[in-house]
Structures are given as C-alpha cells and as structure tokens.
Amino acid sequence: MNILVTGGAGYIGSHTCIAAFAAGHEITVLDNLSNSSPEALRRVGKIAGKVPRLVVGDIGDRSVVKSLLDSEKFDAVIHFAGYKAVGESVSKPWEYYVNNISGTLVLLDEMRRHGLYNLIFSSSATVYGNPLPENLPLKESAPLAALNPYGQTKLWLEDVMRAMSAADPAWHILLLRYFNPVGAHESGLIGEDPAGIPNNLMPYITQVAVGRLKELTIFGDDWPTPDGTCIRDYIHVCDLAEGHVAALAKVAELPGCTPINLGSGSGVSVAQLVASFEKATGRPLPHKIGPRRAGDAAACYADASRALELLGWKTKRDSDAMCRDAWRWQSMNPKGYK
Ligand code: NAD
Ligand code: WQD
Hints:
Elements: E1 2-6, H1 11-22, E2 26-31, H2 38-48, E3 53-56, H3 62-71, E4 76-79, H4 86-91, H5 93-113, E5 118-124, H6 149-167, E6 172-178, E7 180-182, H7 201-209, E8 216-219, E9 231-232, E10 234-236, H8 237-250, E11 256-262, E12 268-269, H9 270-281, E13 287-290, E14 299-300, H10 305-311, H11 319-332
Parallel strand pairs: 1-2, 1-4, 2-3, 4-5, 5-6, 6-11, 7-10, 8-13, 9-14
Antiparallel strand pairs: 9-12
Helix pairs in contact: 1-2, 1-8, 3-5, 5-6, 7-11, 9-11
Bound molecules: nicotinamide-adenine-dinucleotide and UDP-4-deoxy-4-formamido-beta-L-arabinopyranose.
UDP-4-deoxy-4-formamido-beta-L-arabinopyranose is lined by residues 84, 86, 124, 126, 180, 199-201, 204, 216-219, 230, 232, 270, 293, 296.
C-alpha cells in the first residue's frame, strides 16, 4: 500500500516506518518537525535500507495537504501528528486545541474531498480518564472521560470520527488507543527524544541512568496495589509499530469507526519497571519515594483481546526487552538526536 504517515518523524511514527517498510509499504511522511528531527528518518533509512519521503509541512495547512493529496494517490493515512504532553496541555490549552483538533479537521476534510477514507488514528488510553478498579482490564466499551486538554483533543476527535463514519459509510477508521509506549528499536539508532525534562517514566529513568538527571522520584508507594506503586500497561514501541502494520492490513475490511486497545494486557508496577531496568543495566538506578502525582490512577491496563480478534496482533516483547532497548538507545545517544 501507499501510505501517508502524518507525524512520521516522531517517536512512534519513526518506528512504524520501519515496520511498514518491512511489510512492503511505500511511505510519505508529512511532519512539521515541531517535535522531531529529520535525523530520525535518516536513521530509519539505515535500518530499513530505505528513507521515507519527507514532506515538511503542517497538517493544518490546507494548501500543503491538498497539494500532497492532489499529487499522489494514497491507500491509507496513519495519523500520528499532534502534541502529546499532558502537563503542557494544561498550561497551553489553545495550542493543543488548534494543533490537534483544527489540524486533524483539515486533514479529514481533504481526505474525504480526495476519496481517501482509510484512516488509522493515534488515540490513547487517556480517553478512559481515571479508570475505576471494577473496569480493569479496560475494554473498549469502558466509560470515556477527558481529564485534561490533551485528553479532550483525543476524545473529541474520536467523537468527530464516530459521527463522520455514522453519516458516511465510506469511512474505515481504526481508533488505536495506545497504553504506555516505551522502549526503542533494538539497533539503538532510533528512540524517544523528549524536549526538556521528561514527564514520562521511561525517558526519566534512562536520563537518570545516563547521568543527565540526578535521581528518579517514584510518585507514591502507598497506592492500593501489591507493592504500593502505580500499575500501567507498558508496550514496546516496536510491538506498537507492528500493531499499525496489522491495522493497515485490516482497515479496508473494517467499515465504520472501530476503537482498538493497543496494550500488552498486563500491568507492571513502577517498582517492577525500575527492577527490570536495573537488571538491563546491571547497576542500581538512583531513586527515592516521593508523594503521589496529582491526577494519577492507581492502575490502568488494557483488555487486549479485540486487537487479537480483529487484527491478529498481540505484543511479543516483555518489560526486560523494553528496558534493554530503551537503555541501548539512551546510552548510544546520550543527547538524543542532537
Ligand atoms: P511525537 O511528538 O514524537 O510525534 C508526533 C510528531 O508529529 C512529531 O514528529 C511532530 O513534529 C509532528 N507534529 C506535531 N504537530 C504537527 C502538525 N500540526 N503537523 C505536522 N506534524 C506535526 O509523539 P509520539 O509519541 O510519536 O506520538 C504520536 C501520536 O501518538 C500522538 O498523536 C500522540 O498523542 C499519540 N500517543 C502517544 C503516546 C505516547 O506515550 N507517546 C501515548 C498515546 C498516544
Ligand atoms: C507512568 C507511571 C507515574 C514519572 C501518560 C499520559 C497518557 C499517555 C501515556 C499519551 C505513573 C509514574 C512517572 C516519574 C513516576 N500518553 N512516574 N515518576 O501518566 O501513565 O500516561 O503517558 O497519550 O495519556 O497520561 O505515564 O510515564 O507519566 O507515568 O513514578 O518521574 O510512572 O506516577 O504511575 P502515564 P507516565
């Protein structure tokens, strides 16, 4: 298939380019490089033997999207482009609404004007809000809630896509709800390269391990979980990338708008992830226990059965592989792509 990948230079997008090339797809990346480096795509080329075509532009710029879709026929769009930091979305809600919502509306409108109806959308487990324990593991039918502007953009775009596909049966949309993507390609050439001090656990851990940060603070050890630390569903980014390839294979057969969890289906605690990381590096990770972080849930993990049923996909890599690969990327690239 000939695929348009918005945000394809980013963390998940660059890994997905490798998996999509391996499956024989052709790729054009549309990315404004607001949170990524073209170096990531050069390195995709080193790994895959092929560099994706890069169009530097904004999904919200109608002239760019229109001329791209006028000039080339695509079979499907994988739409990663967007801002993704929860905390930043609270301080800059307008930027999140404009970039994620307005940008996506332009993309969707140009897609339908060009008769391009196959879409794979990066949604997030954030649409489940703060899950109640009785709803775990989370099925796609669990109640939805947005707790911050970032989460609102994902939930609102899901609603837009549900309404559009209810009104027009031509659409085939897969709403992929990612849980906690971590890790890196096993080559160590590409990985997560957050700007500034990371908010997410794994990049914080790797930056402590490489000496860029002093120590990890574990946000609370008094949660109602077996070891007192929070539980999440971490998913290796290469498993996630392969999930997109599985979605590409099925999108044309799945009419309407279908939410699908992409997670491992099992929960891992912060303390367990730190222990896996220490095993991967062979040395202790400086850490201390701090207070709970506002807004955190005690536990959040997927029921991953729909992905297996509809896409024939499930995760293959465990937390040891996630930690080993995250560490290889960080130790080979202590300053990321810089
Ligand atoms: P990322 O920031 O690494 O990648 C996003 C890419 O989109 C970047 O290359 C950025 O330059 C580009 N971009 C942003 N706005 C754009 C615009 N208006 N036009 C063109 N390009 C634009 O993020 P990621 O971790 O790879 O996440 C990809 C998608 O997955 C996002 O939509 C994110 O919300 C979603 N997601 C991520 C996670 C996670 O933890 N990483 C979890 C759930 C969902
Ligand atoms: C994981 C666990 C923290 C940092 C976020 C978004 C979600 C999705 C994935 C985009 C939690 C603990 C963290 C630290 C810690 N992204 N932690 N010390 O909050 O589960 O999900 O990323 O869609 O929408 O909300 O991920 O990596 O921030 O935290 O103890 O320095 O690690 O309390 O239990 P989270 P996270």
